[in-house]
Design goal:
heterodimer, A: mainly alpha, B: Rossmann fold, six-stranded mixed beta sheet, four-stranded antiparallel beta sheet, 10 helices, 10 strands, globular
Chain lengths: 324, 245
C-alpha cells in the first residue's frame, strides 16, 4: 500500500503531475488575454508552495509569511528603482538572500516557541516589517509605494512586454523550479524528518533528530522561496506597495492554501488559482461584495472539505477505488 | 522502607549508566527523589513497582524528557544531565516509550529511516529481527497492529545504533503470541547484540526472567536493589516489595 508523498514513497513522477504544466503551457497559447492574471496566479503559487513547506510539512503555523514575500518584493524594487540594478536574475537572487536572512534571524527566535506564542511572533515580524516599509519613505516610498521599477531583459534576451508573455513564462519557469525543489525536499529523508517533527517533535528529539535546526533550515528555505515570489510580483507589476506586507497578504495566502489543501503539494497550485480567478470574477461582478464570495467558499471548504479542494478529489478517488 | 546505598552491578565492568542523587519530575512537581544506581556495560536491569511510582519518569529522566532538579547522570563516562534529548540519543541512548509514538503519516520503512544513523543497525537488520515489519514495510504507521507498532518502536530506536536501550512497558496490552516474539527479540538484543538494557515492565516475573538485575521503586525512591534471580526465587519478597512498595 503506497502513500502519495514521503521518503519511502514512489518518487517517480505520475502522469497527473504533468497536468499543471500542460495546462500552464496551454493557457499561454490559448488564453493570451489572461497572461497578466496568469503571471499573478503563478507568483502566488510560488508563495503558497513556500508556505506549504513550513505549514503543511513542518507544522509551523504562521500568520506572518508576507514578511518574506514583502521583503523580497521591496529588495527587488529598491535595487531597480534606487540602485539601478535592473538585471532580473540578480534581483531575484538578492531578494531570495534577503528573505532567507530575515527568515534565519527571526526563525532563530520564533522556532524556540510553540503554539499561540509562535503564531503571535510570526504576526509581529510581519507587522514590524510593514511599519519599517511605511516609515522608510526614502527607500520604499512609504504609503505611496515604490514606482519607477525597471527590469532589464531576462538573460539580456527576453524583454518584459505589455502583453505579459515574458512575465508569464518567467513566472512559470520559477514556479517549476520551486515545485521541483519542494518535491525533492518532501521525498527526501529531510522531508520525512519534517513530517515526524510535525506529528511528534518530542519523539523526533528522542530518536536523535536536531528538531530546532531542521525547523530553522526549512523556515529559511521557505523564506527564500517567498522572497523570490515577492520579487516576481515586483518584476511583473513594476511597482511595490505596502500591501505586500502585513497581515492581509499573510492571511490571504493561508486562505489560498487551505482552499487548495494543506500539505498536499498541489494544494498550493489549486488554491491560488481558485482564489485569484474567483477574486477576478467576483470583483468585476460585485465590486463591493467580492470578499463575501471568497468567505463563502472558505466556509464551505472548512465545513465540508477539511482537506481542501484536493481533499475532495482524493475522497472521490478513494470511494471509486473501493467500489471497483 | 529500607535505606539503600549507592549500588553498582557487574563489578569490574565499566559503568554504562550511573545516576547519583537524582531528583527530577515535571515542572515543580518532584517524582524521583535521591535516585542512585549504576549499570554495567552489557548489563540488564528491570525497574519494578506499582503504577505511578516513577518508573516511566526514571526512563524519561535518563532521556532528558523531564525537569531535572538535582544530581548527576553519567553515560559512558560522560555527564549528560544537561544535554539536549537528541544529543543523548546521538551518544547512544535509545528510548522506546510506553506510548510507542509511531509517526502515523510515515510508512513502516520511513519510521525506521528517519531514525537511521551510521552503525551496526540497518533497516534490513531490523527486518531480520522483526520479519513481520518487512511484510508491512509499505503500510502507514497507523495501519499496523499494536504489536507491530511495538516492534516498529523498538526497531526505530535500534536504527539510532544505541548501546543503551530504555524499554518502557514494551509488552503492555499485547497478545501472548506477540509477547513471545518480543521477548525473543529483547533476549537477542541483550544476549547476542550485547546491548545494555533498562526494562520497565508491569509483569515482574517476565521482567526478572529477562534481566540480570532489578530495582524496585516506591514513591520515586529506590526501595530494593539486587539480582533478578534472587527476586524471582523469592515470590514472597517480590510480592511484599511491590505490594507494600
Amino acid at each position: 500500500m503506497k502513500h502519495p508523498v514521503g521518503y519511502g514513497a514512489d518518487a517517480r513522477l505520475r502522469w497527473t503531475e504533468w497536468l499543471p504544466w500542460v495546462v500552464a503551457v496551454a493557457v499561454f497559447f490559448l488564453l493570451p488575454e489572461y497572461l497578466s492574471l496568469g503571471a499573478r496566479v503563478l507568483t502566488y503559487i510560488l508563495f503558497a508552495l513556500s508556505l506549504d513547506l513550513v505549514l503543511g510539512y513542518a507544522g509551523i503555523v504562521t500568520l506572518g509569511h508576507a514578511a518574506f514575500f514583502g521583503t523580497g518584493a521591496y529588495v527587488a524594487g529598491i535595487l531597480a528603482a534606487k540602485l539601478g540594478v535592473t538585471d532580473p536574475v540578480i534581483q531575484l537572487l538578492a531578494s531570495a538572500a534577503a528573505a532567507a536572512l530575515l527568515g534565519l534571524a527571526t526563525g532563530a527566535v520564533i522556532l524556540r516557541t510553540h503554539g499561540l506564542a509562535q503564531l503571535m511572533l510570526t504576526l509581529a515580524v510581519a507587522a514590524v516589517c510593514l511599519e519599517i516599509a511605511n516609515k522608510a519613505t526614502a527607500l520604499t516610498g512609504g504609503a505611496d509605494g515604490l514606482s519607477g521599477v525597471s527590469v532589464a531583459a531576462i538573460f539580456g534576451q527576453f524583454k518584459f512586454d505589455m502583453y505579459g508573455r515574458t512575465a508569464y513564462l518567467w513566472c512559470l519557469l520559477l514556479v517549476f523550479t520551486g515545485w521541483w525543489l519542494v518535491r525533492r525536499v518532501i521525498y527526501s529523508p529531510f522531508g520525512a524528518t519534517l513530517t515526524g517533527i510535525r506529528e511528534n517533535s518530542v519523539r523526533m528529539h528522542s530518536i536523535g533528530a536536531p528538531v530546532y535546526q531542521r525547523l530553522l533550515t526549512v523556515y529559511t528555505l521557505s523564506a527564500a522561496m517567498a522572497g523570490t515570489a515577492g520579487a516576481l510580483l515586483t518584476q511583473t507589476n513594476q511597482f511595490v506597495g505596502l500591501n505586500v506586507l502585513g497581515f492581509e497578504p499573510s492571511g490571504e495566502i493561508l486562505v489560498m492554501l487551505i482552499l487548495g489543501g494543506v500539505g498536499r503539494l498541489y494544494g498550493a497550485f489549486v488554491g491560488p488559482l481558485l482564489f485569484l480567478i474567483a477574486q477576478d470574477y467576483l470583483a468585476r461582478q460585485f465590486p463591493e461584495y467580492w470578499y463575501f464570495g471568497i468567505g463563502l467558499i472558505l466556509v464551505l471548504v472548512v465545513l465540508f472539505a477539511r482537506g481542501g479542494i484536493l481533499g475532495i478529489s482524493d475522497a472521490i478517488i478513494a470511494r471509486m477505488g473501493r467500489k471497483s | 522502607m529500607p535505606a539503600c546505598k549507592a549500588f553498582t552491578w557487574g563489578k569490574g565492568v565499566p559503568d554504562a549508566l550511573k545516576l547519583s542523587g537524582v531528583r527530577a519530575g515535571y515542572g515543580a512537581t518532584v517524582v524521583l527523589e535521591d535516585v542512585d544506581f549504576s549499570l554495567a556495560e552489557q548489563g540488564s536491569l528491570a525497574v519494578l513497582g506499582r503504577n505511578g511510582v516513577g518508573k516511566t519518569t526514571l526512563l524519561a529522566t535518563i532521556m532528558g524528557l523531564t525537569t531535572f532538579q538535582a544530581g548527576r547522570i553519567e553515560y559512558a563516562g560522560k555527564t549528560i544531565e544537561r544535554l539536549e534529548v537528541h544529543e543523548r540519543a546521538r551518544l547512544g541512548i535509545g528510548y522506546v516509550p510506553q506510548t510507542r509514538d509511531i509517526f502515523p503519516s510515515l510508512s513502516v520503512e520511513e519510521n525506521l529511516l528517519v531514525a537511521a544513523r551510521p552503525g551496526r543497525w540497518s533497516r534490513d537488520r531490523v527486518f531480520d529481527l522483526f520479519p513481520r515489519l518487512a511484510e508491512r514495510r509499505s503500510h502507514m504507521g497507523n495501519q499496523i497492529s499494536g504489536g507491530e507498532q511495538q516492534m516498529l518502536s523498538i526497531g526505530r530506536a535500534l536504527m539510532g545504533d544505541p548501546a543503551l536501550l530504555l524499554l518502557d512497558e514494551p509488552l503492555e496490552g499485547l497478545a501472548p503470541i506477540i509477547v513471545d516474539s518480543l521477548l525473543a527479540a529483547i533476549q537477542r538484543l541483550t544476549q547476542v547484540e550485547s546491548l545494555t538494557v533498562v526494562l520497565v515492565e508491569q509483569s515482574a516475573r517476565l521482567a526478572l526472567e529477562m534481566t540480570q538485575e532489578a530495582l524496585v521503586l516506591n514513591r520515586g525512591r529506590i526501595t530494593h536493589r539486587g539480582a533478578s534471580s534472587e527476586l524471582l526465587a523469592d515470590p514472597k519478597l517480590l510480592s511484599s516489595l511491590i505490594v507494600s512498595g
